[in-house]
Amino acid sequence: MGAGDIVDLGCGNGALAQALSARAGGRELVGVDASPAMLAKARQVKGYSALQQADIDNWHPRRAPGLIFSNAVLHWVGHHEQLLPKLARMLGKGGTLAVQMPHQNKAPSHRVWLTLVEEMFPGRVEKMGTPGVMAPVKYDELLAPMGQFRLWETEYYQRLMAEPGSHPVRRYTESTYARPILQALEPDEKAELIARYEEVMRTAYPVREDGSVLFPFRRMFFTLTI
Question: Mean pLDDT for the chain?
Answer without folding.
Answer: 93
